[in-house]
Structures are given as C-alpha cells and as structure tokens.
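Hi all, long-time lurker, first post. I run a small reading group and we've been trying to get comfortable going from sequence to structure in the token notation. Rather than ask abstract questions, I figured I'd post a concrete chain and ask someone more experienced to write out its structure so we can walk through it together at our next meeting. Sequence below, copied exactly:
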Amino acid sequence: MDWSRYRFRSLWSLPAPPTAVYAVLERPEDYPRWWPQVRAVTRLADGTGVLTIRSVLPYTMTFTARETRREPAAGVLEVAMSGDIEGWARWTVTADGPGTLARYDQVVNVTKPLLRRLAVPGRPVFRANHRLMMRAGRRGLAGYLEAV
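-- Answer (accepted) --
Happy to help. Here is the structure in token form:
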C-alpha cells in the first residue's frame, strides 16, 4: 500500500438550487471568500490556477489545478492537480429535494517531502485534517449561498 495515496469523498447537502451551487464552484478564484482553508487562488490561464491551502495542521500545500472537464448540464467539474499533491478532484452537483447535493471526489498522491516522511504515523491525522477542511468548506459555502 502506498501510504501517501489518498481517496476522499465528501457529500455536502446545501439549501440552494444546483445551478447556484455549480456557479459558485466553477469560480475557484472566489473560494477564499467562503472557504477559510483555501488561502489563495491565482489564475494562470483559462482553466488553470495555483491554489494554496492550509487546514488545522501547521503545513501549507500548494498545487496547480488544471480543468479537465466542465459539464454544466451534468453538474460536473473536474481538475487534474500537480505540485504538493498529484491526482484529480471532481465536483458532481445534483438536485436533492429543494436543495443540492454536492459530491466531492478526490484521488491524490502526496508529494510534499515532509508529509511523505510522516505518511504512516500521520495518516489518521492527515485524514482528520481533510475532514475538518471539508466540513468548514460546506459551512462556508452554505453561508455564502445564503448571502448572494
């Protein structure tokens, strides 16, 4: 088993229509406005940008995200990531009663040297760190959607 490989899935139930949720998720340059752990997003070109994230643990990760799939009718946004993490992430936005279910799937290999050295003992803590980041993201997006 590669201890530096992670597979994540988060499900966010949101009180807004899918089109509104998708419209916010397709603008990663605005993520720092509502997602506290997304510290910076710098757009490099159409569909490519550099993201800097930091959750509870005292380390920062920086990676380039390159859009690989954008299908508004299907509610799908997907990126390839390279840098401190290598892999992909996908948002799938669907109707859920009067609101939306936003599903986030991610498969990555951590390449940041310190995190690779701590892969075995740190794995449970790194996974918990990711859960906290995703929980804060859901709360932030729900509040942002209510305000707009």
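A couple of things your group might point at:
Strands lie at 5-14, 38-45, 48-53, 61-71, 76-83, 85-96, 99-110.
The chain has a mean pLDDT of 96.
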